[in-house]
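Consider the following assembly input.
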Amino acid sequence: MQALVLIAHGSRRQASNQEVMDLASRLQQSASDSYPLIEPGFLELASPSIPEAIESCIQSGATSVVVVPYFLAAGRHVVEDIPQIVKPVAEQHPQVTIRISEHIGMSDSMTRLILDSASSHSSAVDPY
Amino acid sequence: MQALVLIAHGSRRQASNQEVMDLASRLQQSASDSYPLIEPGFLELASPSIPEAIESCIQSGATSVVVVPYFLAAGRHVVEDIPQIVKPVAEQHPQVTIRISEHIGMSDSMTRLILDSASSHSSAVDPY
């Protein structure tokens, strides 16, 4: 059974963390055929942590987990922190295939998404 | 003439800023019919600044500018800082229509993009 863990940075603003949890819920609605288990996980400042999210999927029967960094840029968090956090979890569960996907900023679909946003409902800046 | 300014946070890592500039270039290739002018702009730590990017579009003949926040969450930067920075530029150019779109994290297309990333080339985490 395949699981997807959506990893965000985490924020002191609970509303930001809630946005990520809502996104994980929307993913679950649209992709439950491919990924019966979808969990959010936070690098810092919010729960569940990345290990907690992966462990939760494994406890629920995941045999394969893809970790998707919900990050725009390949900064230290993407390049170093996330792999370092995921590795010991993989060590504890050698029977489970754990992969880290590209961060979302690398997606070929990003240009299309930006153009969708540009034509979205938006606020005119009132100069007066 | 319509212009699009893609606003990113800006980073001390030049590679991160370059990712944004490359993305703006890819946008220009795919959307030059809708937006003959596309510029990146940075909130901090990199150039051009947001006012510089908008001014550049106006000097090049833009009559309408849509500012797209390349941010995942509606944090303080999106809710307060970007509108505060854009407003005086709009005041200086009342003949130009300046709009701020939703930040990209709000896009309905985000779930699709995350699933694309999940199935992208990715690295297995070697447990040993």
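Strands of chain B lie at 2-8, 37-42, 64-69, 97-101, 122-124. Ask yourself how this observation constrains the way the partners meet.
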